[in-house]
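Dear support,

I submitted the protein below through the web form. The confirmation email said the job was done, but the results page showed an empty box. After a refresh the structure appeared. I'm attaching both so you can tell me whether what I see now is the final result or a partial one.
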Amino acid sequence: MQASDVLVIGAGAFGLWTALACLERGMSVTVIDERAPGAGASGGPVGALAPHAPERWSAKADFQLRALVSLPERIAALEARTGLATGYRRIGRAVPLADAAQRAQAEARIAAAARRWPGARMWIEERAPEAWPLAAPWGLQRDDLTARIDPAALCAALSVAVAQEGGRILPGLRARRVGPGWAQIGARRVRARAVVVAAGWRSFALLAPWLPGAGEPEHGQAALLAMRPPPEAFAIQARGLWIVPHARGVAVGSTATRRRADRRTDAALEAVIGRARALCPALEGAPVIRRWAAARPRAASRAPLVGPVPGAQGLFAATGGFKIGVAIAHAAAEALGAMIARQPHAMPDEFLPRNLPRAAAPWRRAERSEAPGA
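What the results page shows now:
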């Protein structure tokens, strides 16, 4: 393998955006992935991009909001340079309100959103449009900030952009170990000025010598239904459930099972599909055309884990996106690219590996139980 300034391990959203950020700074970049770009947690069908609840604000919530606001411009540039669509659109969201307590909470949340979400709006509607019906006896909490994207299409476009900038993406290669400025790939130790570990939940095992107990996998399942949503369709969020209209169908998901890392779907997904159809009657009878499962990287802090690994100069983490990874990956990668280039950056302190709280999570049991996906 030819040496590069930067070796990125993992071709998901974090890895590919990081590769692009480094290439745009004049560095040479190689990306490896044990399967193919977007084959892991970044390839799911749901693609909901939603802001954090405005009444519970934090540095992570603020970073996520700024990432959501900046994403349309980044996506427009990506689509223009590659000629590939990513499915991005700001479609808004509805949260059905089931009782008076939820209605009161939504009314209080509107005031918080007005303070925290500049340029966006939250409001209450009494009923859903007839073409996109929704069971909501106490109305709907709506916002116009939530967007959707096709994660697999995003990874495909990023792969093309990386190649256009001179980067190399090598599928079918897995890093067995990493260290300060090197990675063990097969029998060969490959060196680079910066090694970025962006291998999803497997990153935690690679980084364990420096960051023990950094995180664990959380299994998720989702499905795509064959249905042409009406033009006014918005994303729907309920407890443990997303319904997201896309140009190619309607995605529903997802389950959440900690310390499980296989790629199988099971009865839990069928239950999610049933809940989605009960909540949104327009989905009744729409056939399932894709079932998907993968493990998301859940860091011990529940925040992304992005930045230099303490005690290992030249080694960087880019993982832990969990449920917001696709939404923030471009912004996290921009900050990480600046770190690698020794430039000023805007990474929140709580994302930095040196600030990770130690947690003895026995997640390695999930790796031993991994089986091929169905």
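Response: this is the final, complete result; the empty box was a page-load delay. Helices lie at 13-23, 59-82, 100-116, 151-164, 203-206, 267-279, 325-340, 364-368.
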